[in-house]
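Deliverable D5.2: sample structural annotation.
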Amino acid sequence: MKTRHNKKRNTAFVYEALIREATVAIMKGDTERRDKTISVIKKHFNSDSLLSEDLECYRSLYSNQGIEQEMGERLIKEVRLAKRLIDTQGLFNQQTELINDINKELSSDIFNNFVPNYKSLATIDQIFSLKTTPKTRVMLEQNIIQQMSKSTPNAEQAQIDALTYKSFVKKFNEKYDDALLSEQKELLNHYISSFADNALELKIFLNKEIKRLKTKLTEACKNSEIKDDNDMVQKTEQIISRLDSFSRQTINENVLMTVLATQALVGEIDNGDND
């Protein structure tokens, strides 16, 4: 019989859900929400917490990609051992405190946040569960090993995930339609969908968008309000240089947040020119 997955007790899922909550708060400029979310993360996922140890066990299995099957098998063996060494009751108590703080300080809606790799996290949770039968565990471990051995998602998984993220994108746009610029929403949509197409569309969009932003910022440097201010010129050039560096970096949330912030800056510049 299949074990029911309790995502509130899935340490990695809760952590990822909190990270995405903080990301959205930053994009909306909601500093109060951002600070509360970050405070909860720092409180419960500090280096000395059992939650942090538990999270590392999950991360070891979902953040490693492109490794050999033999290495994957050894990794799972070591991770399962590390997981068993964690104080079960102590971890349960810390999870309970985390759940209570989220409900009190933020909202139970956090547990409904969209996490792209949710299925992988649920599979890992079943591998760790003592209620999972040996036969099922072996099958699940093989599934995780196959995922770690692949650099790209298979077509079937991408098709399933596509339905999931499209639904999320629609809900997100309905909720934050007035809070984001159209180009910010487009970037976010590509970022959310990137897990399903190996970030192909995101990379294409980012290349075009970064080029547009650099052009806008270069033109802005010619405006009298900026070109006569050496400090403003220097900061603008630093932003352009940082955008240039993204071509040599892996696309992550730091890149996302920088581009989103630059989009907001360029939007303000454009509005200023139109006033």
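Annotation notes: Confidence is low (pLDDT under 50) at residues 152-162. The longest helix spans residues 155-176.
The annotation will be released with the project's public dataset once the embargo ends.
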